[in-house]
Amino acid sequence: MTLQQTIAEYLKYTGHKGFDISAALVDCDGVLYDSMKYHTQAWVKLMKKNGIKCTRDEFYELEGMTGSEIIKMKFKTGAGKNVTDDEAHALYGVKTRYFRELGEAPIMPGAMRVLETLKEAGVDRVLVTGSQQDALIERIKNDFPDMFGDVMVTGHDVRKGKPNPEPYLKAMNKAEKKSNQCLVIENAPLGVQAAHAAGCFTIGVTTGPIPEKDLYKAGADIVYKNMDELAAALPSLLVALSLIKA
Ligand code: CA
Known about the structure:
DNA polymerase, domain 1; 2 domains; about 10% strand
């Protein structure tokens, strides 16, 4: 599909007349940080310690759900156990400890270039993460100085994880933007589903093992191989979108 066809498809299914892109809603794990390999490893360790069979690939598929949601689902299906909110909270604490023990996840190559390109184009950057770790938010501010403002959505703000559109709807609401004013950058199928359901033009990046076709199937408008490829394509994408005025 050409870029023009992609844009026409988006306008058709959303009913928007055009775009006025002024914000990018940016996911964190698998977009800003190459952290999913550590998360999946920590999840598998938690499950195995609790006698629940699983593979790392499953956790790439579940990325975007809240920690509690993942724990409740896996303990139910894998061990027939109903986990309470308190138990889920405690188990999530253990998973977070395993994750930290693996060391600091590297910054995703190309992430800074994507953010700089957005900034140069006058597009606000709004962080949208399911994480509730204050240390992570601080790290983002240090690693990407002046790239994110105070408007952000974290795990503290949302009740329902992806694929529910709540995180992106909250971000749009906080940033006072409509869906045709926002791009979303996502790496996970459930995250793409959430962004698509929120009506935003959704950019997928295949930074992990999940293939391009799965992100398209989840509703991505366009998919790039990685953040470097997105950074290179972004100026012409922004121009193409700006030509079709709302
Ligand atoms: Ca992600």
